[in-house]
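Supplementary Note 3. Input sequence used for the single-chain structure prediction.
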Amino acid sequence: MNLALWLQRVAGARGDRPALMLGERVVADYAGFAARAAALGAALAGRGVAPGDRVALFMKNCPEYLVALYGIWFAGAAAVPVNAKLHAREAAWIIAASGAKLGFVTPDPGAALSAETDVPLVDVTGAAFAGMTAGVGMAPAPRAPGDLAWLFYTSGTTGRPKGVQITHGMLAATSLSYPIDVDEVRAEDAACYAAPMSHGAGLYAPIHVRMGARHLCPASQGFDAGEVLDLAERLGPLSMFMAPTMVRRLTDAARATGKRGAGIKTIVYGGGPMYRADIEEAVDWFGPRFVQIYGQGECPMAITALSRAEVADRAHPRWRARLASVGRAQSVVDVAVVDGAGAALPPGEVGEIAVRGLPVMPGYWQAPEATRKTLRDGWLMTGDLGTLDAEGYLTLVDRSRDVIISGGSNIYPREVEEVLLSHPSVREAAVVGRPSAEWGEEVVAFLVAAPGAGIDEAALDAHCLAQIARFKRPKAYVMLPELPKNNYGKVLKTELRKMLEETET
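The predicted structure, written as discrete structure tokens, is reproduced below.
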């Protein structure tokens, strides 16, 4: 089933309902939304985009994002959403790796991308896009549940991004489990896209389309805590996805202005470590508006959930332990904690988290070896370590991979290390994360200078900014005569983390 059918059906039944909004302005009702997406699908087909082809989205949040996404699905193609915060070179690499035939962009960040790729780019604010969305539409191309809908690029331990194949069936399963395990969706609701639509926020769009809800993009095209609080008061009930750092910033802004979150229906948080003190403070200030989810790109948004009642509960004798967990398995998956041989461990024992079910990916794009390592006997091996208790609550203990999650975005140390090592003054580099009250984690680089060279931090900053996204740039540099290593020459990042802990105590 093509997910574009949900839009077509809602437009037929509730075409006059407001659909797309930019701030307080209604850009399109559901009839207009569906007509523009269907026309775009036909225009893509006219340009030679066939079912199964890929089309990239390198855009800031805006109503046109959903028009482009659904237009791609009308044509039977697969969307390749690219984080708008990435460097143009990084985006170009993803576009090339996916084999995208076309890309839709906003002026910022799209302007820099044209110099990095030969793939045709269409500015969604321009006349060409307006023309593509104004013609005669098409019916959604037939798609099977296993057909590709969304190609999500997430970096691996090698530092090179891998394309997670997300199918129409996976998105349907994630969407239909949302009202069961996360939150009820009603036609009067508004999905607010303050977090990137290329990630978790966008993955929740289909269920809100299916229920005929509004889709609201802040005029800032990003997250501004004051703007979100004002929009909620005027346009609620609002539901939105937030990274833990966004929750912290929203709470701080609300406390500073005395606002209690009027109009906010639900904040779904996930995508990184949430400090228990932060969520306790948020609930104490805003009330029971929060739901936690745990997922990965390989099982998008659909591994576990901790309900709003459980997040807000203070009466249960184990409420603190529950609040420190990521909840229980969602309805469409099995979750287990296993040992190195894949055998399930007893409650309370630490092991690798594994998940299987309808939302689990069929594999990585054109990466069979990585797929074999990650999918074993039908189970997705998450690489995360955790424990399950007797009631089924899953608690994350650590990440077996070295990924740094800063502000809800993944940063992979190897990628940053390779950039640092390309500077002539650097002989060795190792990158780790350290706790940050503002961002969750931040990047710290340990460096060994090249013989006879001095290290200029400003020059390294400029070197990084020329090659990778700003949020991946190290926030601190630590100079060492040599990096700690084991007998095999592998850098001991555990020792580097200990150094950071010792300097902060």
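Residues 30-46 form the longest helix (17 residues). The two ends are 56 Å apart (CA to CA).
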